[in-house]
Amino acid sequence: MKAKTARVTFWFVQPLDSQTNGVINEFLSRQRSGQDEGAVTVELGRELRKRECSFSEVNQLVRSRHDGDLRFKVFRQRGRNGQLEEVKFQRGRWTFAKAA
Predict the structure, then answer these.
(1) Can you tell which superkingdom this protein's organism belongs to (predicted)?
(2) Which residues contact 87 (CB under 8 A, 6 or more apart)?
(3) CB-based burial, 55-90: b 16+ in 10 Å, e otherwise
(4) Banded model confidence at residue 45, pLDDT cuts 50, 70, 90
(5) Which of 12, 17, 62, 99 would staple 75 via disulfide (CB 3.0–4.6 Å)?
(6) Residues contacting 39, CB < 8 A, separation 6+
(7) CATH architecture for segment(s) 9-98
(8) In Å, what is the CA distance from 14 to each residue of 1, 6, 63, 78?
């Protein structure tokens, strides 16, 4: 029997306004201090700019979104060739929907 290989999940944040974009860029710069922090472009019906993040970074942004009046969407991709899914966080639960 073959052993199952772990599927890698990639996380992305898409700012919805310039204020949020600035806050997210500053946050990720502080988190990564010196690491490659280039934006990753993913296709979602049309090209949109998204930043690849760790799950920990996504969690921190979601927890602080109301305090800083941040507007953004979260996406995940399971495996490098997986379908991009929009992630919603409502009432303490994550829900996933395939992006159109």
Answers:
(1) Bacteria
(2) 74, 75, 76, 94, 95, 96
(3) eebbeebbeebeeeebebbbbbbeeeeeebbbbeee
(4) very low
(5) 12
(6) 49, 50, 51, 52
(7) 2-Layer Sandwich (3.30)
(8) 41, 26, 16, 17
CA distance 92 to 88: 10
pTM of the model: 0.71
Residue 3 three-state SS: coil
Report the alpha-carbon distance of residue 90 to residue 82 in Å, rounded.
24
Q: What are the extents of the domains in the chain? A: 9-98
Q: Which residue has the tokens 């941040």?
A: 70
**Residue length, the chain?**
100
- State the DSSP string of 33-92: TTS----EEEEESEEEEEEEE-HHHHHHHHHHTTTTT--EEEEEEESTTSPEEEEEEETT
